[in-house]
Amino acid sequence: MVNREKRQTAKQLVERFLASEVTNDDFNDAFPLDDADPALEAIYSNLWPYYSERYTHKLDGKHTLQPETRALFSRCAAFLESDLEYEWPRYKWISPKYAFMRLFGFSKKIDQQFEGQSSG
Question: Would you list the domain boundaries of the chain?
Fold first, then answer.
């Protein structure tokens, strides 16, 4: 089920975070989740690896995102604008296992793992 109000809030928050108008803490604290609309958790979980939780910052300076990551944020905002149902399996993208793997440069391996699970 699409929660239009929470998706709109999330979309604006993603855009504001991408534009360096809010900090990572603001993003975490204000991002709306709703068990009935799994797109919200999926998007939050997919964006989580691209900023630090160790200290407060904006996505500028040394935290400026690469073009492909900026495109991911933009695609997430576009999906949140839609009324499309989230149709993919629910995964827990945020976990100690995946955090350590991403920390040590295994992001492509994680992405391949999830791509394999969603196509099978």
Answer: 4-87
* Amino acid letter, 75: R
Q: What is the 3-state secondary structure (H, E, C) of the chain?
A: CCCHHHHHHHHHHHHHHHCCCCCHHHHHHHCCCCCCCHHHHHHHHHHHHHCCCCCCCCCCHHHCCCHHHHHHHHHHHHHHHCCCCCCCCCCCCCCHHHHHHHHCCCHHHHHHHHHHHHHC
Query: What is the maximum alpha-carbon separation in the chain?
Result: 40
Amino acid occupying residue 22:
V
Give the CA angle between residues 104, 110, 115 to the nearest 5°.
Answer: 165
CB-CB contact of 76 with 40 (8 Å): no
Give the alpha-carbon dihedral of 97, 2, 87, 107, to 10 degrees. Answer: -30
Residue-wise pLDDT tens digits, 35-90: 999 999 999 988 988 888 889 999 999 999 999 999 999 999 999 999 999 987 66
CB atoms inside a 10 Å sphere around CB 98: 20
